[in-house]
Amino acid sequence: MEFQYFLPTKLVFGKATINQIGIYAKQYGTKALVVTGKSSSKRSGALEKIVWSLEKEGVKPEIYDKVLPNPTFEEIENGARFAMEVSADVIIGVGGGSAMDTAKGIAFKMKNEGDLAEYFEGKKAQNAVPIILVPTTSGTGSEGNNIAVMTNPKTNVKKGFRNPSIYPKVSIIDPELMTTMPKRITAFTGMDAFFHALESYISLRCQPFTEMYSLKAMSLIAENLEDAYNNGDDIEKRSCMALASNLAGISIGLSGVSALHAMEHPLSSFFGANHGEGLCPIAVPFLKYIKPHIVKKLASLSTIFKINENLSEDEKAERVIEWISNIIYKLNLPQRLEYFGVNKEDLRILTKHVVEFLTHNLSTTPGNLNYEDIYKIYESAM
Amino acid sequence: MEFQYFLPTKLVFGKATINQIGIYAKQYGTKALVVTGKSSSKRSGALEKIVWSLEKEGVKPEIYDKVLPNPTFEEIENGARFAMEVSADVIIGVGGGSAMDTAKGIAFKMKNEGDLAEYFEGKKAQNAVPIILVPTTSGTGSEGNNIAVMTNPKTNVKKGFRNPSIYPKVSIIDPELMTTMPKRITAFTGMDAFFHALESYISLRCQPFTEMYSLKAMSLIAENLEDAYNNGDDIEKRSCMALASNLAGISIGLSGVSALHAMEHPLSSFFGANHGEGLCPIAVPFLKYIKPHIVKKLASLSTIFKINENLSEDEKAERVIEWISNIIYKLNLPQRLEYFGVNKEDLRILTKHVVEFLTHNLSTTPGNLNYEDIYKIYESAM
Predict the structure, then answer these.
(1) Fewer CB within 10 Å: C terminus or N terminus of chain A?
(2) How far apart are CA A274 and CA A297, in angstroms?
(3) Would the pTM of this model clear 0.90, i.e. be above it?
């Protein structure tokens, strides 16, 4: 048993905790840049509450609401330029993964000159500006780790950037902000959280803490996602999903994701897929393909999904995959790659992209997958 | 669901990880004070390995091996004076709870003038000198929290001091160092870890993270403590106990202990009891007494202890207490207070002490215990 555990972020979890954000922000200065998208933080009321709390505590808010899905280096650089113009002391990211990761990128870029691509390659980084994150979806879990997923517009490579400097100082997880999430977003972000948990659980880097977190996250999702989808106002269900997403986010920060996430990334960068939606058609073929290597792990999940205890290990593993297939169906999520306009002739490009640029995710995936394996999985997802 | 989670410590877990300590220490300066007791860090070989690793990385070690069980303010002040004389940049605590807590106290005292008692009362504190901890027992879990248990020699009050400044920067948990732990110490430190887990689980401040940690810790202890006791060389068993102790230590840092720990503290300060031993005779009467308030929680542990599923909740709770009573017996730990020389006429003094000085532990204990309750529990432990 050998592992490391590190999470220097203070997690503040609970209904209405958003109203305390000013108290935390003022520890880092008097000017805060609030990084968000066009709509979700307004719809949820998060933005209004944040501005109120910041002003109450004497912190001047500047709003930067230009976040787009799947943020690029360029968008992050633009944000950082704005942040420096307004001399922001602290960066507050509010929204889903794109908003939170843009905030991380901006805070990093403010202290680190030069091309972002170089830092992906290991260039030594300075500290970042302090970061506070506020998720308004329950999917990405970015508030619980030091990963910022960004797309390099030159290469179309979408990849997670990891750096110790971009752990949020504080993450405020207020499930009330999630009650206004539309059904479709509840569904695909919930499945993103589920796959974070599952992938870090089967990861070759799984360790005792992430094992606990992943199991708890999957159990919470199994019990609450459908209800949160069908009855979005239920604060208890939303709380459970928010916790699941947070736990799964911490898990991937420590144990990584797998080839499933790697295979989704080019769907987003080439076909504009929503990340959580993009995972769904690949998941079942992926799990079936690597099942021989993870049969014990899959079978161990059977109690979470209330699968009959008297089955063989292999049958239990089968049923777990079936459960996943069913929930994708029940949540009206895409089951085939054609949903994104992918044609058979695109598969070689997607496969090449994974094998060329996302080897780190393959290296933690059981089964030692190569080009042919990835191609076959994509093919089964058509 | 409302809670906070914060643990800024890097945990480095695994066999032979002690050899990396110099790499971590040099991040904080060139002079390290190694705080330890007379024997355990020498017996385990920890001290020798630490000195080797520090010197290899260009950090000069100074040894302070004057730690005694149940450290007092005075002992901590003496240590801090020595640390300042040698201009230590980082304080390394190696040993059981007393050594680690003395190290925390020294690091704190170096940056905070005046009487330690005032800081217990809430005097505003500055940062402490960076702390690195190395447990050589699996009981206290002090490497996973910001608590330092100290005794005020004027009042004989033994109490946990909490301050954000005394989170260790790094904790190195090397189970190999625990293979030389004598049977008796394995037993009572193991039960200390068990009660940390159980008490934070039943605590009114229990939250989702500490619930996970406590359950995992109890499960690891149920599966491994007896084997670690009977076969101390087994590195796998030692690893499981080290992890359990660490998880339980994090749990009490976040959710606190209960009246059981409060009732043990005066046994240590008045009767010189070893903390882990002192808990044992009180535990069963305590749990029986508050059982009506925690029957669901106790019953929920029945699977951990492999208790028949078809029993009623109340019967399951009974059996869980029985399991605890049995393990205390099997590990040859004290079952009656008379073991420590406590007489019936001492009980009023002990009770008064708990009610007067340790109210914070009572406030997190289900059942709203008062003087009479505490007295009755002590009485049943005679």
Answers:
(1) C
(2) 28
(3) yes
